[in-house]
Amino acid sequence: MAAATPTPTPAIVLIGHGMVGQRYLEALAERGATATHRITVLCEEPRPAYDRVHLTSYFSGSTPEDLSLTPAGFMERHGIELHLGDPAESVDRDARTVTSRSGRVFPYDVLVLATGSYPFVPPVPGKDAPGCFVYRTIEDLLAIEEYAKTLPQTSSGGTPSGAVVGGGLLGLEAAGALKGLGLATRVVEFAPRLMPVQVDDGGGAALLRTIESMGLTVHTGVGTQEVLTGADGSVSGMRLSDGSTVDTDLVVFSAGVRPRDHLARASGLTVGERGGIGVDSRCRTSDPRVYAIGECALAADGRVYGLVGPGYEMAETAAEDLLGRDKEFTGADLSTKLKLLGVDVASFGDAHGAAPGSLDVIYSDSRSGVYKKLVVSPDGVLLGGVLVGDAESYGLLRPLTGSVPPVSPDQLVLPAGLGAPVALGPSALPDSAVICSCHNVTKKAITACSTLPEVKQCTKAGTGCGSCVKMIGQLLPAAADKGLCGCFPFTRAELYEIVRTRRLTSYEQLLDGHGREAARGGDGCEVCKPTVGSIIASLAPTLGASGYVLDGEQAALQDTNDHFLANLQRNGSYSVVPRIPGGEITPDKLIVIGEVARDFGLYTKITGGQRIDLFGASVDQLPRIWARLVEAGFESGHAYGKALRTVKSCVGQTWCRYGVQDSVRMAIDLELRYRGLRAPHKLKSAVSGCARECAEAQSKDFGVIATANGWNLYVGGNGGATPRHADLLAQDLSDAELVRLIDRFLMFYIRTADRLERTSTWLDRLEGGLDHLRDVVVHDSLGLCAELESLMADHVAHYRDEWAETLQDPERLRRFVSFVNAPGAPDPTVKFVPERDQVKPDLTILDIRPLEAVGGTR
Amino acid sequence: MTVELHVSEGWLTVCELSDLTPGRGVAVLLPDGGQAAVFIDRSGRTYAIDNRDPFTGAAVLSRGLVGCAEGRPFVASPLLKQRFDLVSGRCLDDEAEAVRTYPVRTAVTSAAVA
Ligand code: SRM
Ligand SMILES: Cc1cc2nc3c(=O)[nH]c(=O)nc-3n(C[C@H](O)[C@H](O)[C@H](O)COP(=O)(O)OP(=O)(O)OC[C@H]3O[C@@H](n4cnc5c(N)ncnc54)[C@H](O)[C@@H]3O)c2cc1C
Ligand code: SF4
Ligand code: FES
């Protein structure tokens, strides 16, 4: 620090510890200014800064702690004094002091106002009645949740209802939250369409259709005139401007926000006509000792920014200015991308085509709720756009704004496959393109780094809303070639996404359309074929493809084990493993297995998976063996597949004196639910009836241990060469919760793991590890859970036993011959010798002797 | 259309072309008791090599997966996954090993009765 530090240490007082306030503190810390200044923070809320942007995720399971933005120990480490629940009440600019509600007086050399906004509540009668809420803080959410719980069923037996006043960005989030709380929800928007600020009429219409199809009621073009109350004084309904009334038990006002500029106003600072603390391009107010940043500020360009990205930039600007460095904030764009109630919505730049002479290019498909509009200038410069239903291209389009895109605009809005350019990637962007709008990071700054963690650390890009992370990945040098094999430049997880989103059901289509140039049109290889076969099988019910792994082209993709639905042994014979769910088997079924083994001369062994393996079958014998087994009620055990193997159990509560739950029943349920599920690698599970853990559940991909209150779920365990104890994912789950969580966990693994990566290695590799996994599958941080559950529901609904199906079809049975030119002739090289009362492979066959006169030879 | 294999006794009819699945193989029992593996790739070209995997001694190559590397077709043994060039029989993963190849053709001539 070259600047001479005056003694005594200058004091900074920060009023407001919201998102921008915290960013300001971090900016000071990064620049070493926390060491040279005494910093005091006055925080009105009872908790330190948290992620308001993801507030709604509280309703999908995030705890207030998950939302915290303040790293543990941050304040202590930087010597910052934080006063929770003690808001500033007045500022005396002459004395340079701030007085807080508790009566304490804080002198300052520099004052920073980061007081954010308050929700605007229209002055309608009844607006303060019990049952009226706003949607801004964690406390607001807690109050809404609490109140919703107390609502009785309606007299007609229906569910309680809620209404949101305001159909903008936040209103729709609030509506999603109310719906999530089980309320019949309606949205009342004064403008003629939803999200009037961000989208145009066409986008609003697409949004409306999708939102109505989710069961929400939407009123547009009507205002709220009065909140009606019942006998007890609490909310009972609303009167609308068209004269109609609607019943509702709860009202959330989300009709816009207003800057919190009261302190500034009272202390004589310049405030905008329509609110907002006036600042210059360095974020200084009319008093050079006082800064204002974030949503409370009226920026130099005359706007108040209600988004966190511009707020962060103001925080950086004010921090730089404090240190005498040059940085200006002159405005930002209002691009937004959100996932509202599961619908992608994005708008950027001049979304409404306000620029004179601007032209629109529109693609609209009301069947799928997709609406895309680009605004271009007459000379082809991209000015802005609106994307509803499919915002995939947002990451690319936003940075292209202000330039002439390298391909024509119609190609930019068409869905992939309908003329969308293959080659247009982030490499087409200029260096100055802003990739991360939350942190205002350019392509140039990102490409100076080489890995995502490095980018996050050096530029903070990707650490805000996260919508730019994918784009960042594309900009970084491919560390090494991460491609699956010589045929595909993609990882397994990427191939999964391609197959899923393009709904491809054919390997050749995938290879020819997405393979490496040199591999297209070719025969693929032994690595990618089974991998793609497995991906298609995992997604089959959802893609509408045949779930039978040996149908058509699928047959050519399978490893030999899957091809013959049995495990190849060292001498070319096969083993047969019928499923014995949970390891429970009746004496009659045991007898059938014994008889089959005896009649076909098979070696039998109890496996490490609590079932029985029958070894030494020739290809020709497989159908006959299985005919007997299927007849007796057995199914394929998938010992050959990268699929669910076994769910082991201990005897549990039914017999064991210590058992607290019925572990056998649960193991059977789980095994039957997930049987046949194709995965990147095999999946194993176990259920123990109490903490003594006789089923060794903690060494399984997903292990379940009974507790007095339900079940604990452990994931990522492994035996084998590199054993790993499973991690506890969630505790005391009910049966339904357990199953739901396993559904999500398995589908997330199937979606993102590499080829032949067990859950253990996958979990160790997963960025953010167990915490991230928990965020995704427990707290639904990616908004994926509904989809994961539905994929699993599809799997469960479409499961059919592969062996039973094979036996029904003579065509399929034709492959089970040793020789194509001599069906029925056994393979003379598959031989056995006696061993301990059974047989074992005769392995003296390393020289093949010419054999004469074998039946069926021509 | 039938698939024929050239062995010491001459051309041996093996199966109908339609018995072959693109990308996979079938095993053929030869008059001398030996075994060949016949494959067809996705463009319809057929290949034939010895069925015996020299690494394990098991007659299983016909059950491997067909692929191509640098434009050349191969089969990967289902047991320990070594790859064999379908045209030359050379092992792509171990120069010391190779399997014999057989000339193979498709013909309309012989008994085209299905
Ligand atoms: C039959 C069996 C041994 C036995 O006689 O008990 C067995 C046999 C084989 N195991 Fe296993 N494993 C068997 C239980 C286990 C267990 C114990 C268990 O499941 O509780 C483990 C440790 C648990 C685990 O997987 O985490 C086990 C860990 C492995 C591994 C190491 C996996 C790892 O992640 O490190 C392999 C190798 C692999 O998959 O790459 C393997 C691979 C194999 C293969 C498939 C090797 C191969 O490629 O040929 C063997 C095939 C046998 C066949 O053809 O049928 N087997 N194997 C067991 C069958 C269980 C079943 O009913 O399905
Ligand atoms: C549900 C929801 C979803 C959102 N989604 C997005 C989104 O997707 N993208 C996006 O860019 N933005 C989004 N926003 C907006 C974003 O949260 C704000 O832009 C951002 O929080 C502004 O930060 P701030 O620090 O200026 O204000 P705030 O985060 O509101 O912080 C201001 C803090 O100051 C405190 N305070 C006020 N007066 C005083 C006082 N006198 N003394 C002490 N403390 C005081 C307040 O209690 C508050 O804690 C969303 C907002 C909400 C509510
Ligand atoms: S240790 Fe297991 S996998 Fe290895 S040979 Fe023995 S049974 Fe097979
Ligand atoms: S754009 Fe939000 S984190 Fe980068």
UniProtKB/TrEMBL annotation, chain A:
EC supergroup of this enzyme: oxidoreductase
Domain Nitrite/Sulfite reductase ferredoxin-like: 569-631
Pfam families: Fer2_BFD, NIR_SIR, NIR_SIR_ferr, Pyr_redox_2, Rubredoxin_C
Keywords: 2Fe-2S, 4Fe-4S, FAD, Flavoprotein, Heme, Iron, Iron-sulfur, Metal-binding, Nitrate assimilation, Oxidoreductase, Thioether bond
Reactions accelerated catalytically: hydrogen sulfide + 6 oxidized [2Fe-2S]-[ferredoxin] + 3 H2O = sulfite + 6 reduced [2Fe-2S]-[ferredoxin] + 7 H(+)
Residues annotated as domain Nitrite/sulphite reductase 4Fe-4S: 641-777
First and last residue of the signal peptide: none
NADH-rubredoxin oxidoreductase C-terminal domain: residues covered: 335-393
Residues covered by the FAD/NAD(P)-binding domain: 12-313
InterPro entries the record matches: BFD-like_2Fe2S-bd_dom (IPR007419), BFD-like_2Fe2S-bd_dom_sf (IPR041854), FAD/NAD-bd_sf (IPR036188), FAD/NAD-binding_dom (IPR023753), FAD/NAD-linked_Rdtase_dimer_sf (IPR016156), NasD-like (IPR052034), NiRdtase/SiRdtase_haem-b_fer (IPR005117), Nit/Sulf_reduc_fer-like_dom_sf (IPR036136)
Enzyme Commission number(s): 1.8.7.1
Pathway the protein acts in: Nitrogen metabolism; nitrate reduction (assimilation)
Cofactor(s) needed for function: FAD; siroheme; [4Fe-4S] cluster; [2Fe-2S] cluster
Domain BFD-like [2Fe-2S]-binding: residue ranges: 434-476
Task performed by this protein: Catalyzes the reduction of sulfite to sulfide, a step in the biosynthesis of sulfur-containing amino acids and cofactors.
PANTHER family: NITRITE REDUCTASE (NADH) LARGE SUBUNIT
UniProt family annotation: Belongs to the nitrite and sulfite reductase 4Fe-4S domain family.
Name of this protein: assimilatory sulfite reductase (ferredoxin)
Species of the source: Streptomyces flavotricini
From TrEMBL, chain B:
Keyword Oxidoreductase: yes
Highest taxon listed in the record's lineage: Bacteria
Pfam families registered for this protein in UniProt: Rieske_2 (PF13806)
Keywords carried by this UniProt record: 2Fe-2S, Iron, Iron-sulfur, Metal-binding, Nitrate assimilation, Oxidoreductase
Residue span(s) of domain Rieske: 12-113
Gene3D superfamilies found in the cross-reference section: Rieske [2Fe-2S] iron-sulphur domain
Keyword Oxidoreductase: yes
Name of the molecule in the record: Nitrite reductase small subunit NirD
Name of the gene: nirD
